[in-house]
Amino acid sequence: MLGSDAGRLLDARKRLNESPLGSAALAGTPYPIDRHMTEATLGFDRPTANSLDAVSDRDFILETLAAATICAMHLSRFAEEMVIWSSAQFGFVRLSDKFTTGSSIMPQKRNPDAAELVRAKIGRILGALTSLVVVMKGLPLAYSKDMQEDKEVAFDALDSLSLSLAAMTGMVGDMNANRERMRVSAAAGFSTATDIADWLVREINIPFRDAHHITGQIVALAEQKGCGLEGLTIEDFKFIDMRIDSRIHKVLTVEASVAARQSYGGTAPANVLIQAARWKTLLTGQPHEPRPLGKKKHGGHGDGGVE
Q: Hey, do 1-177 and 185-257 end up sharing a CATH topology, with the first three levels equal?
C-alpha cells in the first residue's frame, strides 16, 4: 500500500513542479521574458504551457491531496491493526511507553494513543480534499479570490500526513512482537483446512468441489473429538476417505501452510525475505541481499509505480 502511495505522490509531482511565473494575470506578458531560464533557476521541471490554465488551475493541489488522502486512509487502517494487535484480547504486539499512555482510571491499561490519533487524521486530510473540490467546482476560468482557500487546507493536510507517517514509523520501529501468541492464534479455528483441500486436489487428484466437502467432514470430526486438525490420526482421516494417506500430516501446521504460498507475492518466508531485501535496497540506496532462511522451529513488482 505504501509503495503505491509513494508512486502516486511521485506521479503527482510530475505535474505539480511547473513554473507559472510569466503567466501574468491570465494571458501572458508582452515583455521579452525567458520563462525557461526562470523555471530552471528556480528548480522547476518546466514552465506551464498555458497561461490561462496556470492561473485558474488547482489540480496540482487536488492531486496531491487525493494522494495524501489515500495514504492517510492506508495509515488509518494500519493504525487500527495496531490498536487491535496491542489490545489485551489479542496481545500480538506491545507498544512502548513512547507511543502509549496510561488510563485515567485503570492503572494496568496502556492506551495506544499514537495509533488512535493516526487513525483519526484521515478525517482532516479527506476534509481538506473535499473542501477544496467544493471551492473549485463552480469557478470560471482565470483567477478568483476563492482560490486563496487552497493554502490553509493544503498545508494542514500535508502537515497531518507528515506527522502520521512519523508516528507510524516510530511505532513500527519500536514495537515488540509476541511471536508465540501470533502463532497460537494463527493455528486456531482449523485455519489449515484449506491446505487439506489443496492436498486432496494436488496429491489424490480429487476435484476441488469434492475436496471441499471431504475437508468439511474432517473438520466436523475434529470438532467432535475436541482437537485440532493436527491432532487427528491417520485412522481418523481414512475414516472420512480411504484414499488419504500419512503424507497429509505434512500440511497440517501453520508453518507448512505459510511456506506453501510460494507464488510471486505470496507469504512463503523465502518470498518475504526477498521482498524485504528489495525494499531495503530501494529505501537506503545500498544493495541488500536476502538473509538466509532460518531453520524451521516447527514442522515490475505491483507497487504502484515504485521501481
A: no
Q: What is the pLDDT of residues 265-298, one digit of tens each?
A: 998 999 999 999 998 898 888 898 888 877 655 4
Distance between start and end Cα atoms, the chain: 14
Domain ranges for the chain, please list them.
1-177, 185-257, 261-306
Say if residue 306's pLDDT is above 50: no
Cell numbers for 33, please give them. Answer: 521574458
Which residue, 190, 207, 204, 203, is CA-closest to 257? 190
User: Helix axis angle, 113-136 relative to 150-174, nearest 10°?
Assistant: 160
Residue 299 binned pLDDT confidence (cut-offs 50, 70, 90): very low
**CATH number of the domain at 1-177, please?**
1.20.200.10
Q: What is the CATH number of domain 185-257?
A: 1.10.40.30
Tell me the whole-structure pTM to 2 decimals. Answer: 0.86
Note the pLDDT tens digit of each residue in 165-211.
999 999 999 999 999 999 999 999 999 999 999 999 999 999 999 99
Q: What is d(CA 247, CA 92) in angstroms, rounded to the nearest whole number?
A: 32
Which grid coordinates are listed for 253?
A: 501446521
Main-chain phi, psi angles of 94, to 5 degrees: -125, 120
Beta-ladder partners of 46? 18
Alpha helices in the chain (DSSP H): 2-16, 35-41, 51-56, 59-85, 113-136, 150-174, 179-187, 193-204, 208-225, 234-240, 254-260, 269-284
Residue written as grid cell 491531496: 65
DSSP state of 228: -
161 and 72 in contact (C-beta within 8 Å)? Answer: yes
Longest dimension (CA), the chain: 93
Residues in CB range of 45: below 8 A, 6 or more apart? 14, 17, 18, 39
